[in-house]
Backbone:
């Protein structure tokens, strides 16, 4: 609970309390009920108020594309990536007469369509309250000053409203807005003649000045004159939020997904999150620590399905549906059943050349909730042909025009790109040499340039060094099996390369035992897969707790414990296969 909620959104409850959905009024009052609308309109002294629910997310962009909605204000979200049929969302925004965005990141897939961009505040810069899923309201205090001209959402909204000529937006601080929020929650609440009963009531917090608001302790609603200590459990009195006080059970008829698999699209696409990323990666994608676990998008599928589709683990493949396509690397690690594939939702056009899975997802929505069918889209998978694979690490962004497929991964002192191309290098000429130097914008003939090439094997390695400090490197191979990245990343932490480091660059692997820790498994302590597997083998570790005691992995947040258990099983299976 608290700010790190078990649910997907730490303030999802708070958003509903203030009417932050298209189908609800503020203070748990509903559209479609004339009394509810009259209560809110009277309290706000509003000359008019909407009488019916607005458009849900997918419906909204349908209306934008059709020209029925001519202006949209998008706050803190990235619908070009997160919504289904993402290319249609792009098309809708490109037609819209006015697109306004409020964000803390300038370059997002959605901001590319904005006519007006407003700098907002991030979580640690905000001042207000949040409500978690047990109805507990907590003060959230800013611990980072607002950068530049960034401002709080409420200030931006109030200023726009006042410039448009609306009254009632003369708030000077968050506690004044909270006071109105508390007053509305109690207004005509449980009034048998002129009101309506609703459980949400924080009337006991009306009238807080700035000092008392700042000192507000976490409490659960309802918090009224009758419940000054808050209520831990609702409905113990068997009184529900309906006129007769009785609960409602709503039966919804089950139905099959609208789009069924067929001969053209025989597999079912399921989408979702991975452990260390959040939504569309606009912020978490900038963390080198989080990128160490899973660095690029993937297609997780059953090995027999992969065989039938003509793709292999580690190769690039295209996922296609009737709505769009994307490209990612095939893997088999998730235990997917036959007929199903999984692709994560996070990667977007800012971090990859073609990895928006939202472009593939079908736009059908649930008729009641409006939730899209993110878990069921018929797709086909085919090999994405490339002639070479590679990766680069550099302190500056390389030139990617000649690269067919790429994914960007942030490092602590470098940016890494996973690369693939369709151009063929001529073995009779020094094409690799020229291409690699152009990749890093190097035109100095006297540059400290280290390179190795085996034309018969289709292997090329090169590095640029300035004052004995590595500036960039690139590794190319006609096969997908490339050197480990972790030890190369460690070279960017050094102020000077020694002779052994230079030799390692030419060799394509670290010289010295134990230098390659492998892909990160435990992000909290930076423990790599190789370190964990070596400890399991050498010390005979049998449980995740033993792994934690030995190498610390899993000893903080615990989110990597399932992966530790899997590594224990895999290591034991590998040991038994050699006996």
Residues:
């Amino acid at each position: 609970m608290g700010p790190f909620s078990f649910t997907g959104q730490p303030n999802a409850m708070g958003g509903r309390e203030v009417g932050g959905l298209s189908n609800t009024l503020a203070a748990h009052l509903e559209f479609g009920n004339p009394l509810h609308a009259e209560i809110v309109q009277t309290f706000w002294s509003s000359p008019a108020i909407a009488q019916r629910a607005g458009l849900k997310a997918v419906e909204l962009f349908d209306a934008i594309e059709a020209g029925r909605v001519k202006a949209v204000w998008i706050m803190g979200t990235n619908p070009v990536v997160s919504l289904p049929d993402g290319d249609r969302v792009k098309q809708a925004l490109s037609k819209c007469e006015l697109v306004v965005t409020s964000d803390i990141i300038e370059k997002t897939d959605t901001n590319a369509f904005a006519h007006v961009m407003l700098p907002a505040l991030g979580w640690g810069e905000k001042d207000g309250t949040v409500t978690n899923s047990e109805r507990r309201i907590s003060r959230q205090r800013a611990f980072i000053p607002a950068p530049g001209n960034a401002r709080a959402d409420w200030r931006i909204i109030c200023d726009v409203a006042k410039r448009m000529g609306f009254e009632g937006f003369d708030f000077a601080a968050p506690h004044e807005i909270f006071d109105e929020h508390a007053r509305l929650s109690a207004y005509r609440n449980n009034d048998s003649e002129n009101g309506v009963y609703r459980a949400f009531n924080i009337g006991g917090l009306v009238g807080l000045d700035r000092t008392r608001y700042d000192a507000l302790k976490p409490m659960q609603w309802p918090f009224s004159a009758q419940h000054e200590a808050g209520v831990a459990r609702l409905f113990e009195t068997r009184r529900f939020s309906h006129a007769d006080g009785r609960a409602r059970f709503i039966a919804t008829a089950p139905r099959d997904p609208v789009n069924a698999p067929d001969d053209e699209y025989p597999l079912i696409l399921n989408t979702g999150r991975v452990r260390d990323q959040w939504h569309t990666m606009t912020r978490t994608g900038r963390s080198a620590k989080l990128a160490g676990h899973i660095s690029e998008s993937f297609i997780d599928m059953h090995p027999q399905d992969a065989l039938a589709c003509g793709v292999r683990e580690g190769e690039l493949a295209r996922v296609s549906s009737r709505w769009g396509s994307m490209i990612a690397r095939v893997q088999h690690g998730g235990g997917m059943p036959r007929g199903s594939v999984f692709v994560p939702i996070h990667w977007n056009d800012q971090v990859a050349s073609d990895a928006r899975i939202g472009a593939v997802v079908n736009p059908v929505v649930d008729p009641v909730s409006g939730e899209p069918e993110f878990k069921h889209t018929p797709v086909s998978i085919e090999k994405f042909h490339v002639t070479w694979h590679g990766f680069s690490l550099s302190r500056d962004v390389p030139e990617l025009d000649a690269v067919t497929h790429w994914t960007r991964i942030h490092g602590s002192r470098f940016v890494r790109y996973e690369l693939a191309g369709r151009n063929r290098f001529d073995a009779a000429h020094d094409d690799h040499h020229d291409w690699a130097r152009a990749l890093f914008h190097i035109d100095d003939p006297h540059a400290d340039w280290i390179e190795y090439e085996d034309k018969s094997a289709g292997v090329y390695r090169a590095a640029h060094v300035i004052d004995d400090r590595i500036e960039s490197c690139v590794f190319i191979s006609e096969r997908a099996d490339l050197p480990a990245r972790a030890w190369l990343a460690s070279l960017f932490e050094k102020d000077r390369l020694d002779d052994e480091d230079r030799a390692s660059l030419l060799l394509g692997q670290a010289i010295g035992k134990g230098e390659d820790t492998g892909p990160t498994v435990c992000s909290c302590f930076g423990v790599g897969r190789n370190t964990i597997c070596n400890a399991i083998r050498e010390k005979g570790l049998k449980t995740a707790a033993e792994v934690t005691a030995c190498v610390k992995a899993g000893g903080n947040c615990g989110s990597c414990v399932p992966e530790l258990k899997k590594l224990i099983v895999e290591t034991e299976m590998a040991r038994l296969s050699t006996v």
Q: What stands out?
A: The longest strand covers residues 469-477. The chain is about 25% helix and 20% strand.
